[in-house]
Amino acid sequence: AQSVSQHNHHVILSEAASLELGCNYSYGGTVNLFWYVQYPGQHLQLLLKYFSGDPLVKGIKGFEAEFIKSKFSFNLRKPSVQWSDTAEYFCAFQAPDDKIIFGKGTRLHILP
Amino acid sequence: DVKVTQSSRYLVKRTGEKVFLECVQDMDHENMFWYRQDPGLGLRLIYFSYDVKMKEKGDIPEGYSVSREKKERFSLILESASTNQTSMYLCASSPPGLTIDNEQFFGPGTRLTVL
Question: How far is CA B88 from CA A19, A61, A99, in A?
């Protein structure tokens, strides 16, 4: 079955710490991969996406993600987090039938 | 400026009522989606539509139906609301096929409470 697994449900970090959120997907074919972010009280917005080409993708606000095909992974990283990064993060993939499958989300809490 | 709008931000209904959630997009997208978002469960796909009058069941269609009479509008219907349908409902739209510019755009959500 098609699915997305996010390794951590809740992450707490101090400001300036480095961040890595794990994501693995279960699908054997070509996929588009996404990370979405939902800040408190706001709607979902796209953080970054991978379609093809360079497996290291840079997104907004200093985030990046690396697609490792052999590991079916698309981990999100940021070298130094800020208090304003407190949000819920969702990994997702889109299969050729246009369905987008989301992970269960990771709540990130940054301590000032 | 692309936009997906949902008819209500907050809605309170009683058990057994028929509930309509409306979604409109102005991007001329073929694909539209309804999700529900619950803490710890992420976004789960209820129904989606590839075109007018077309619909496909998602992962959790039970208790819901949809209507797509016009390209820009996708309605979610709860025939007889129950308390376990209390949730945040998100509508989204996207263009068809896999392209480098493909992404879903989300509406602000409707927080439905069923008493």
Answer: 28, 26, 19
Find, in chain A, the residue whose alpha carbon is nearest to that of B101.
Answer: A51
Would the CB atoms of B98 and A32 count as touching at under 8 Å? Answer: yes
Res A112 pLDDT > 90: no
- Closest residue of B to A95, CA-based? B98
Mean residue pLDDT across chain A = 92
Place of tokens 């789960």: B44
CB contact under 8 A, A102 and B31: no
Length of chain A: 112
Task: Give the pLDDT confidence of B52-65 residue by residue, as tens digits.
Answer: 999 999 999 999 99
From chain B, pick out residues whose CB is under 8 angstroms from the CB of A103. 42
- Chain B residues with beta carbon closer than 8 angstroms to that of A49: 103
- pLDDT value for A42: 87
Asked whether residue B101 carries a pLDDT value surpassing 80, the answer given is no
Angle at B98 between CA B92 and CA B104, to 5 degrees: 15
